[in-house]
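User: Show me sequence and structure for the first protein, then do the same for the second.

Assistant: Starting with the first protein.
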Amino acid sequence: MSREVAPGIFLIEPEPDARCEFCGKVDELRPYGPKGERLCFDCAMKDEKAAKRQFIKRLGVESQ
């Protein structure tokens, strides 16, 4: 779970392995798919702009 620990300071913690919603690989996933799907790193990086949008959305901060 990623969380804000102080104003503007975020902690990204490891998460348990699960099955990627795109490729099916069992790995640590993050909710960075275009619609918030939980993806492995390789699948998330196929659309870096979408991953960045979801990352920023999850942090609850404005894009820099």
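Switching to the second protein now.
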Amino acid sequence: MMGTVLAGFGAGIMIMPVMISHLLYSYGWSTSCKIIGSMVLVLVVAAAMFLKRDPSKIGLSPYGYNEPDKAGQSLQTNDFSFQEAVHFKQFWLMCAITLCFGFCTQVIMVHIIPHAIELGISAEKAATILATLGGVSIASRIILGSAADRVGPKLSFTITFIIAAVALLWLIPSNVLWMLYLFAVIYGLAYGGESALRPLMVAELFGLSSHGVTHGVVLVNIAIGGAIGPLLAGRISDIYGSYSLIFEICAVLGIIAFILTLFIKPTTSNEGISEELSREGL
């Protein structure tokens, strides 16, 4: 379900770069921004009008409400508050992983097209690289989200970061269009998988009672990494006249993120909180 809902992100990345490239070429940046802004205003507000908090608001019960849980399909029963969750190393591992991933992803989103243009690829073809990444991420969200239902979020999450590390290593020598397309396919798998599996991992580790704030704080790290990455990439490119160094940094961060996923263990009982607090003298 999570993967299907988040497939919309991939659809946007697949469609918008090509459409924006056409608008910029036809109307210039000012008019293009007005067109895109108007589209977002109309579509988002219209869609929001149909949202309901939960089925009870329209006199319905959730699907399967009266059915027994299927084996292996329910999250573990531990349920921690945000104040408790921050005392687990798993929380900080998730923050570090998402910081690395946010850094790498926003470097790609912002700079892959300029990088391709610097290699002599036309702007239109360069835009399709990002569109390919977004298109693949649609399928990845659904496939890896479904895999998490069967084998658990942890294994799926780890596989996602193996794929991300491989893609970022492949990006370093990529200097022709087909290599960049292949990078987009591989990284699209990781990008889509991470988006679908991150909230499931937080729920699996810490439960649902404070999922909003716990996942929100973890998600902040993607924004922090995403703010630092593109600025640093632009600066490095200006100094060295190439994106090679920043892509190498991204590859290192991708490998670090993968290694960190191996250290995430289940939060099995409230005793874990007590032990964490006692070690800190609280």
